[in-house]
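Chain A, query sequence.
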Amino acid sequence: MDVVSVVGPDAVKAVLADPGKNFSAKLAIDAFMKDFIGRAILARDFEDHRYHRRIMQSAFKSGPMKTYLDRMTPHIALGLRRCESEQFFLFHPFIKKLSLRLASGIFLGLEQGSDLDRINSALVVMMNGAISPIRLKIPGLAFNEGLVKRQLIADYISELIVERRKNPSMDMLSEFCNAKSEEGEQFSDSDIIDHMIFMWLAAHETTTSLLCHVMYRICQFPEWQSRLREECYGIGKPAIDYEDLPKLDLMDWVIKETLRLHPPAPITMRTSLRECEFYGFQIPANTLISIGPGISHFLEEYWSNPQQFDPLRFSPERAEDKSHTHAYVPFGGGAHTCIGMHFAAMQVKAVLYQMLLNHSWETPAGYDPKFKMTPIPKPKDDLPIKMTNFPRRSQFH
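Chain A, predicted structure.
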């Protein structure tokens, strides 16, 4: 197919802001993921998108966010304890499993037990089907198996919706079931299913990718690992509370610099709705647009030594990310800016805090990882790691 590639902060802003409503997210997503995410928030345009986003925003206010953090804290501690005896292990499968368990608990309220294992396994099969290049509904093929598991998950969520509408729990599904916009608008059951499946998929995959890259970078630069650990010690708790998040400035800069160098979604897609002129070029109607925000993260006119890992570029004194409104866009921009970006940052900080408080981390000497870039960047060798335990500080308990 023909694809128009759009790069550079000005061009990225023009497409993502889209004042002329020339570019559709829905058509681009439908071409690849419609069978799996349905009419999720990502696959909606313009007023329809605004309608759903207005309702969804209530699930990401401070009250629910505090609840999500409280729910994930013990699961992070349990996950780390389970690998303490191993010392040497592969970080990617470990953190992917932990991220999936956190997502299942926070989004659907699933805890230990047969339902958790069954639904998590179905989600993995569904994800494999979603990225399969052979997209035929033939039994035995990954694409078809993914669709079967997608239906299983949809049926399971449908049953939970009935319960959550009557008896809300401390999970995102309950928030979606009872969410209302200021105008009193609510989601239908089918809306909730599509939104939940997409959020569940996106959250654990992107968080896994980000944590892998953060781990690689703080092993590559152990001085930054030490600085982050001291910042965690300054909080003086075994796990962070919601009110502690703004206190982790250094961790925030490390996460942002990692997102600059390794954006979990380095390409965003749109489809042109009509023929339009764009910076002197004619774009035909119904043409796929590939937006490369990650390229903007390496342009020397906006970033000093852009190939270098330098979290201090995000400090207030330098603020290189403010050089252009779209020089730094790891969570997209415009109306489709990731609604869960603050949730993702909170989860990554919560995991990193407990990881750094009681453990040090190393990669093999001279380690130079290679990354598989699609659909979500991940280390090809699963990131071999050595973990050393620290004595737990009694004053934190």
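The chain has a mean pLDDT of 89. The radius of gyration is 21 Å.
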